[in-house]
Design goal:
This protein is an alpha+beta fold. Helix content is about 25%, strand content about 35%. Strands 11-10-13-14-15-16-17-9-12 form a nine-stranded mixed β-sheet, with no helix packed on it. Strands 35-34-41-38-46-45-44 form a seven-stranded mixed β-sheet, with helices on one face.
């Protein structure tokens, strides 16, 4: 039933068994029972099951464990929630002396509950105790290994690839040696590994052979990764690098202390590791064994550090011939190994049903590709890479280049001619092999050259001569010295490039008029030309039937086979056939609106019919007009518009009780527009908006103004009549704004017009004390330029899309995307919070490492053909892309990927993320304000699949990003600031004028001025920024030596933000902390670790006396230099959060957002007092300047104010604790009066009343008390404050 709720009551303590045997669970009041009879059995917990502990035992008793049928006693140590909050070990003594101890690794998991997590009450039991084996050894390598421990009773275990062994007889507090052996051919390899609790997370095992070469034993290296996510030692034995050879040649590899490895092409994969533990130092070189057994020279160094990278490299033979290969490095699915894929740079594929012979220019040899085959290709001339093909011993085609992405139709034999008899003639046509499509697709790994049969849109164009008497001649380009081909009147023909390597443009002229040539590029276009003795074809007097007959008579429907297979008709349908139905009516209507020039005599139109480009030559102006503007004969059938003034989306984790993120779409500021023509409104510049707004306010206040008022030269505005005069033209004027989101779709029979825009978008980090307040936001334009031009939306996209007849593809006639400058600020804390938020939507059953390993091994077995094509489905329909344009992207990137071991353990599901961060050689990666600029992407007049388009987009941005990837560094500050800061001025001189030129000459001048200032400002700012980051890093390093993990996190959070005053505050804090730490650190250490902790704390205290002031000094230097950077960079901006984080309240239940409560809670959390013991309840605003609150918490009320210097909140006065109150707060005018207990009786009355005890009058009269008064600004504020204080004091928290 929908209204049914299930309430489950369970014990706060449970035991979960991950062991391979069942266990008995006992309880005892004593931590060390002297006799077994003192133990009381609770129950049995089977494998992968849990057992709840009785409530009394959970609070006061000890829990003991013993595994069944293992010949051991109950554990010598009991589990108690107050003493076991961290991972610990249990040991079970065997019955017999010749048997082994059974060790259990116990991992406590704290369960989040309302009382312990939200209200910060005293601790109560809330744990699940997970029972694990101390050590598990996983064989993730390709070998079968025998693993034995140093325990004398261990005979060893043989582990094949993908198997594992659990060990219960290892006390990991002491070192234990694992011996690993395996056989390879007639050689036995032996290695050893020391296993103990604090062993390194990443290590290597060096194997030595039992046979020697030149009196030296051989060596092999494997890698070890220790996973402690579940509390025990999970040892993953693996090979760091998996190299797969997808060429048809034998390759050899070598590297740092790595013996040369020979890798035949028929061997799936080679596994190896290197002695260097950090992958940033890992690299190797390659050479090739040629067919004549000669080896090439070694290649240049190939880095193996960064997963996801790819590139090309070259090896040279002794005759200086270059052999080019592609390499890709990717992280394995289980996240520990790097998979290196090596292919030839060029791959040939034959998708036709005929054998294709490939010839390289200037050479006699050739390669034969059987149908549906894929083979490597090693060109001799790597500089030009010009090829030609032949089919069935036909003549060679024209040469074509395979260096870059291209699609071209190659004419093999024969020619297609279409006449009025509507029959296709091929002379000759041997089994439809007249033409083949050559397609070059550049992927991240290699260049794939595919030969395909003809498909819709692959023919460059079909030429149609609609004249009844005039022949047309044409050829490829103006430099072609031939006489050209002839297209007779009333015929159509297929045109393809005679020489694909030369300039691709169609040159045509009227037969007999070679001196007047015309050039047509393969895009939608039109034009006119003069023809002598043009017959009268006045269409306005024709009937529909006559128009249809005329189209047919001109050969428009002459049959042509686009697949070059005889017997099928090819008709120009979609756009030209409209003429047969709508000519007369459409042109009579249109002729009144737009004059048609019928005196030229001849017209040509280049348009798309489906995916096929058609060029028609006609004397008929109506055919010309209809082909040019198909929208004349169809209307918009529907128009949909959606808009939102503003929208906010809040991401809340109601389990943890915290706001994670807030996404806001907001509208623009006020915009003034004038009507340029009907339904067309144009925005005025921001500069004019400011003037208009000034006069609009005066008019609203009824001030006397003489209209019209001048805005600029020849521009005046009359706000009373709402008229704008530009020169001699008068336009209507309106005051409006742009919505946060707006989208429109206009639908017609043949196309859909889409447009959308987003005014401003911002994603805020709503976590407490975030490293970055904003995750994503638009970066405002430079003021001087922005004021000259209308405001622009952050995101603007337009598209015109239509289906294609017959092919099933789409026509993307127009697509343009413009995104303004943006900033990304990412840190792991925010990403982890998002992971926590969506944990409930992620399937909990994780895929095992073995399963992931098997998937990786299966990928390595793929053939070259599958490696190249595994992401591309067969028979994908092509689409036409007329204009596909993405404007340049400008991104400001800041990263903070520092993490701790606790983070890695908590988010074990995302271990590959941490492994990737480790692969960069540092435990943290930090960058600030790195500017990335990616150039414009433009694709015009291309027929391709969406898969190829996506590959093209990926390659464009990958290549652009690689050139700027060096900026994303920062282990020791942002040293790149020296380079980017000094260079950004030069970029400004180039990039900003380019933007200005798009909008007009005046903006170009303004952009040039901005560029000059940018050179000076960016140079000073860049140097200051780099020096500041170095100071920041040195300061953090000095202080981190003496701070605990908790203190480090608190210090990092408070160091973010602020200015000189804030830096001075941190300097003072570190100075005082260094002095007081000499006393406090030993005391804290003694509490946590006894005598050893005392001496550890004393050492921290003495070191802190010197190092903490040093850190504070460098912090002060850092913020000072950061201020220099901000001042010297003109156009600096401050993006504040859209709203403060949500306040959940004392019960932790999410409620409707309250800006009042969120503001008060945010102010309270910024205090340095009471935040660990109290929770925010409510507040009253006392003064707006300086902003002052009366804050009411769960325990007290206080008055706080916001500092105008530091921007932080401080406690001005601590009011009364509720435990001391003997009466409710009373109001007298603007004064609040409260009676409180004093002395030894302080808090007695308050505590008794809040827990429900009664106090008699005689007892109450004996309690000492006094009256406290608080004078507030007004009576209304006093009443509100008293009301909130009384509410909070009566609530049982």
């Amino acid at each position: 039933h929908k209204e049914t709720k299930r309430v489950t009551l369970k014990s706060p303590v449970a035991v979960y068994n991950h062991l391979g045997v069942a266990c008995l669970v006992f309880t005892c009041k004593s931590p060390s029972p002297k006799q077994q009879t003192e133990l009381e059995k609770i129950g049995q917990v089977n494998t992968n099951q849990s057992l709840s502990v009785p409530l009394i035992t959970a609070h006061k008793g000890y829990v003991f464990i013993t595994p069944l049928k293992m010949g051991v006693y109950v554990s010598s140590q009991g589990i108690h929630w107050t003493k076991h909050e961290d991972i610990f070990n249990l040991s079970c003594q065997p019955y017999a002396e010749d048997k082994e101890y059974f060790y259990i690794r116990v991992r406590p998991e704290a369960q989040k509950s309302l009382e312990s997590h939200k209200l910060r009450m005293e601790k109560r039991p809330h744990h699940i105790y997970h029972l694990h084996y101390p050590v598990a050894f996983y064989n993730m390598s390709p070998i079968t290994a025998a693993v034995a421990t140093s325990n004398k009773r261990d005979a060893g275990t043989e582990l094949s690839s993908g198997k594992h062994q659990n060990y219960s007889n290892i006390d990991i507090t002491k070192p234990c040696t694992f011996t690993i052996t395996y056989d390879s051919g007639d050689i036995t390899w032996r290695g050893s590994l020391k296993v103990y609790e604090k062993m390194e997370t990443d290590d290597i095992v060096v194997f030595n052979s039992d046979k020697k070469v030149d009196n030296k034993s051989l060596e092999k290296v494997f890698s070890i990764n220790v996973n402690r996510d579940e509390g025990y030692l999970k040892i993953l034995f693996h090979a760091k690098y998996w190299v797969t050879n997808k060429t048809d040649r034998t390759l050899q590899y070598t590297g740092y202390e790595l013996s040369t490895i020979t890798h035949p092409c028929d061997e799936e994969v080679k596994f190896f590791s290197m002695k260097k533990k950090h992958s940033t130092e890992s690299e190797f070189i390659i050479r090739m064994v040629l067919p004549d057994k000669e080896t090439t020279k070694w290649s240049k160094v190939i880095p193996l550090a960064a997963a996801g990278t790819s590139g090309t490299f070259t090896v040279e033979s002794n005759d200086n011939r270059r052999h080019e290969l592609g390499v890709k490095v990717q992280l394995s699915r289980f996240g520990l190994s790097m998979i290196v894929i090596i292919t030839p740079l060029y791959v040939l594929r034959n998708d036709t049903t005929h054998a294709v012979r490939v010839h390289e220019d200037g050479l006699d040899n050739s390669i034969t590709l059987p149908p549906k085959s894929t083979v490597p290709f090693w060109p001799v001339d790597t500089a030009s890479c010009k090829l030609s093909i032949s089919i069935n011993d036909s003549h060679k085609t024209s040469s074509f280049s395979i260096l870059e992405t291209d699609t071209v139709l190659l004419k093999v034999e024969g020619e297609v001619v279409v006449d009025n008899n509507r029959s296709a003639h091929m002379t000759p046509c041997p089994q439809s092999t007249s033409a083949v499509v050559m397609d070059v697709n550049v992927t991240e790994l290699c260049k794939v050259v595919t030969f395909k049969p003809l498909f819709s849109g692959s023919i460059p164009c079909v030429m149609v001569n609609h004249f009844s008497h005039q022949s047309i001649k044409f050829k490829q380009n103006i430099e072609d010295g031939s006489d050209g081909r002839q297209l007779h009147a009333g015929q159509c023909t297929v045109f393809t490039w005679s020489d694909p390597c030369k300039k691709r443009e169609l040159v045509w002229w009227l037969d007999g008029k070679m001196d007047s040539k015309h050039i047509i590029t393969m895009k939608t276009d039109h034009g006119t030309f003069e023809v002598e003795d043009t017959p009268d074809v006045e269409g306005s007097d024709q009937s529909d039937e006559e128009a249809r007959d005329q189209v047919k008579a001109g050969g428009i429907e002459s049959s042509v086979d686009p697949q070059l297979k005889g017997g099928r008709k090819f008709s120009l349908t979609s756009q030209v056939k409209m003429l047969a139905h709508k000519t007369k009516h459409a042109m009579k209507v249109k002729r009144r609106q737009e004059e048609i020039d019928t005196d030229k005599g001849g017209y040509w139109v280049s348009f798309l019919d489906g995916l096929q480009r058609v060029i028609i030559f006609t004397p008929d102006p109506y055919v010309y007009k209809i082909s040019q503007h198909p929208s004349l004969v169809e209307r918009t059938t529907a128009q949909l518009t959606a808009s939102l003034v503003a929208m906010g989306l809040s991401l809340v984790n109601d389990i943890d009780g915290r706001d994670v993120a807030y996404l806001g779409l907001t509208g623009s500021q006020i915009v003034w527009e004038y009507q340029k023509r009907r339904n067309k409104w144009v925005a005025v510049s921001q500069e004019h908006v400011e003037i208009l707004e000034e006069f609009y306010k005066k008019l609203s206040n009824k001030e006397e103004i003489k209209f019209p008022v001048p805005l600029d030269k020849d521009i005046e505005a009359d706000l009373e009549k709402m008229i704008l005069t530009i020169g001699k033209n008068t336009h209507k004027l309106r005051r409006t704004f742009y919505e946060g989101f707006w989208a429109q779709a206009a639908l017609s029979k043949s196309e859909t017009k889409l447009s959308a825009r987003i005014g401003t978008i911002q994603l805020d980090n709503q976590l407490f004390n975030p490293i970055f307040d904003n995750v994503f936001h638009a970066v405002p334009s430079v003021n001087e330029i922005a004021r000259k031009y209308p405001p622009k939306p952050f995101f603007d996209v337009s598209a015109v899309i239509g289906p294609t007849e017959h092919s099933g593809g789409m026509q993307y006639q127009y697509f343009e995307l413009l995104i303004q400058k943006m900033a990304f600020n990412l840190d792991l804390n925010f990403l982890f919070a998002l992971l926590d938020l969506f944990t409930g939507f992620i399937k909990k059953e994780q895929i095992s490492e073995f399963k992931l390993n098997e998937l990786d091994r299966a990928d390595l077995k793929l053939s070259l053909q599958n490696v190249v094509y595994h992401r591309e489905a067969r028979h994908i329909v092509s689409s036409y892309f007329g204009v596909f344009k993405i404007h340049p992207l400008s991104i400001i990137l800041s990263l903070n990927f520092s993490y701790t071991d606790s983070d890695q353990q908590k988010y074990s599901l995302f271990g590959p993320i941490f492994n990737m961060l480790k692969s960069f050689g540092a435990s943290f990666i930090t960058t600030d304000d790195i500017s990335l600029q990616l150039s414009m992407l433009l694709v015009e007049n291309k027929v391709m699949t969406w898969h190829k388009m996506i590959e093209k987009i990926k390659q464009h941005y990958i290549q652009g990003g690689i050139g700027q990837a060096y900026k994303i560094v920062g282990v020791l500050g942002n040293l790149v600031g020296f380079a980017t800061g000094l260079a950004s001025g030069t970029r400004g001189l180039f990039y900003e004028p380019f933007e200005g030129a798009l909008l007009g000459p005046e903006e170009f001048v303004q952009g040039l001025g901005q560029g000059v200032h940018g050179f000076v400002g960016a140079t000073i700012g860049g140097v200051a920024d780099s020096a500041g980051k170095i100071a920041d890093t040195v300061g953090s390093a000095a202080v981190s030596l003496v701070l605990t993990e908790e203190e480090k996190q608190r210090r990092e959070a408070t160091r973010r933000g602020g200015g000189i005053i804030s830096g001075l505050g941190h300097f003072t804090s570190d100075l005082v902390g260094g002095v007081t730490g000499v006393v406090s650190k030993p005391v804290t250490g003694a509490k946590e670790g006894g005598i050893a902790g005392f001496f550890t704390g004393a050492g921290r205290g003495v070191a802190g006396l010197f190092l903490r002031p040093i850190g504070g000094t460098f912090d002060l230097l850092n913020v000072a230099l950061d201020s220099v950077k901000k001042v010297t960079t003109r156009g600096d901006y401050d993006i504040s959060q859209l709203r403060p984080s949500r306040c959940f309240g004392i019960d932790g239940v999410m409620q409707v957002y309250s800006y009042h409560l969120a503001t008060g809670n945010a102010a309270f959390l910024q205090l340095d007092k009471f935040t660990d013991t109290d929770m925010y309840f409510n507040h009253v605003v006392l003064k707006p300047n300086p902003l002052t609150f009366l804050i009411v918490t769960t325990n007290r009320f206080m008055i706080i104010s916001k500092s105008s210097l530091t921007g932080g909140w401080q406690v001005d006065h601590v009011g009364v604790q509720f435990a001391e109150m003997m009466s409710s707060a009373k109001v007298d005018e603007n004064t609040v009066t409260i009676t409180v207990a004093t002395g030894r009786d302080s808090g007695l009355h308050g505590i008794a009343s809040r827990i429900g005890w009664g106090i008699t009058g005689s007892v109450k009269s004996q309690i000492k008390s006094k009256t406290k008064t608080f004078q507030l600004p007004s009576k209304e504020i006093a009443k509100e404050a008293a009301k909130i204080i009384n509410e909070a004091s009566k609530v049982d928290f």
